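Annotators were shown the component list below and the corresponding predicted structure, then asked to write short factual statements about the assembly.
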Amino acid sequence: MATADIHITEGGHDHDHDHHGNFWTTYVFSTDHKMIAKQYLLTGIFWALIGGTLSVIFRLQLGFPDADISWLEPLLGKWITEQGKLDPEFYLALVTMHGTIMVFFVLTAGLSGTFSNFLIPLQIGARDMASGFMNMLSYWAFFLSSVVMFISLFIETGPASGGWVIYPPLSALPQAVSGSGLGMTLWLVAMALFIVSQLLGGVNYIATVINMRTHGMSFSKLPLTIWAFFLTAVIGLLSFPVLLSAALLLIFDRSFGTSFYLSDIYIGGEALPNQGGSPVLFQHLFWFLGHPEVYIVLLPALGITSEVVATNSRKPIFGYKAMVGSMLFIAILSFVVWAHHMFVSGMNPFLGSVFMLLTLIIAVPSAVKVFNYLTTLWRGNLRFTPAMLFAIGLVSFFISGGLTGIFLGNSAIDIQLHDTYFVVAHFHLVMGSASFFGMMCGIYHWFPKMFGRMMDNRLGYIHFWLTFAGVYMVFFPMHYIGIAGYPRRYYSFTNFDTLNSFSDLNMFVSIAAIITFSAQVIFIFNFFHSIWRGRKATANPWESNTLEWTTPVVPGHGNWPGEIPKVYRWPYDYSKPGSKEDFIPQHIPFSMTPESNLPHENEMIKLEKEEGVNVVVVDDRKGH
Amino acid sequence: MEMTSDFKIIEEPKKTLSMHPQKFALWLFMITVVMVFAALTSAYIVRQAEGNWLVFELPQTFWYSTALIAVSSITMHWAYLAAKKDNLDMVKVAIIITTILGLLFTAAQYHGWKVLAEEGYHFVGNNVSVSFLIVLVGLHVVHLVSGMIVLLVSLVSTFKYKVHSKNLNRLQMCMTYWHFLGGLWIYLFIFLLLNHN
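Structure shown to annotators:
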């Protein structure tokens, strides 16, 4: 009997006291998943501000093509022409960098990096990631990549300008546009580092979810957030190496003179030596990453909001297995639809119809997810926290942006719509804004666990409504502009008679974009002010079921001061009939809730304790 | 942990499935390498189907290098079996032979490139089929160099008595990676032989 007790507390002592490192090991070269998550978050916010600023500058050009913007000269220098206009080549650089930054640096690194790192160990009941060191390397590879990309914004020839998809020959030949010189080289270096960072992170996420779950945390008891992060990491692991291959061949074409993507090019009447390459080959390789990337961006947002919607509806998530199944299905489908980005690249129409069919099938799991969100909300005891509002906002964008995907996925209709503002409106709603709202939802919801304080609700509401209304004001009119035939990436439309009719709408969009972007200042203030001055949080402010809320208010190194809690039930026991509280956390055994157990749950109580004997839970973890 | 009969356990949750995290991470890493080569070989097929594709003889040396890497897999396995029996001297010899075979393989691949260059097939300037061959071979060699670094690390830890029958993880991972690199080359070679017309 005595020997049985010795091991029980041992696991706890290792992690009871804080490991006091110095400033560098605690805040900079930290291997703690929570600190790395915060590093990702702050870097992501920084990039979001840059990316947003770039979009405001080119929206000024699009909405007010005749305005004199020489007042921007202190910021943009020689990119403002003598006539007080934006330099047309710099306009291309702006849209390219806006896309690159938002897709990769904000919504991939900022979203997955923050929440996968923060929530995976906390929600599966692990002390840290499988490899803290690799996790640190992952952040610092991302940081280096950020530095290189940031520097490229300031070089004399300008950053990469060939669009975020960097199609050759535009991106391969410095003669094409000034940004395809040094700017493009830096872009490729930054993205290579970025891919390394994503792979290091992804390997860690997968290894952690599979190997480090606490006792009882079977896959069928995983919170949907973890399912989403896990599938996201799997998609990233399979698709980012392909982008690396594509980029490698592009680097050979650019710097060594090979002809993987280049053929029959004449510049100034003179033929280039490159023969026999195929630019469409690059498109295939790029979109084999590029399409899964959409889901790398979106799935974490869907996971986060599933969790937040269930918690704040005080109801079990509707169709847990259907939610997991549809995410799995989306993840698989994401690899077989890439060519719908290339319907007009001259591909075989039969092949086009195959990809069209596969693309339209994605509507099925997406609709399953939407209906599950709505049925979870239906007749719930809704608590409209800011996080909940952002989650509902995501559902709204997912519907309105997803519907236009059905048009675009149709290879015949795409002939009319491709490369117009209709496409821009579609993916900004369904991928950009939806994922951004998922990220905001996550920040508002897990802020108390990150910083031990609450964000201000009232500022959160103002931020939400301005952003929500703003996003629709920006992207709804864009559909009409697109149907009217406005092509994307054009510097100005004033020279085309047919494209003059919607100038006022473009102006409206630009004003709305500026308002929406300005509203983010409220968030920035709320975020930083609350870190130091916010109301002190309790350990479980949202009365939520998942394991992270069983930690101290601010979890220290190792996350739980004592033993890691064990898991007995799924994470969605909200408002269970018979239960006193309207939530039963995952670590509460069924034997403690006889009043609310269902018949099959009673059977899961294998052994009842005998009278007068204390219950001892044996810790069979290996010693540390 | 012995439990006496006085204790009863209440619905003790099951321990979740788990593997050695580093071995698991190695497998994930190998998946990413597979994806890199899957992308390149698919690109090869797609590009070849478009025509304007130069056909040339594969250098004879690739047969020898294939034999070298196959033998090196055997010696690697020999190192592992020796470690299982705590025959550390044998482990050292086997790892050194494996590394030398790896170096010979690298030299053979380089020789293959030189043979191609002498026949007038260069990375740049000829048909893209030559460029593809050189990228595939070169990228594999880059990975093989990383494998040889892993071999040297294992050798050093053998000298430090960190590899023995009770501590086989490091050598096992080294072996897995080395077999993988050998298999990868054999895949590439067969791929090149089959798609060479």
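Statements collected:
1. Residues 159 and 192 of chain B are 40 Å apart (CA to CA).
2. Confidence is low (pLDDT under 50) at residues 1-8 of chain B.
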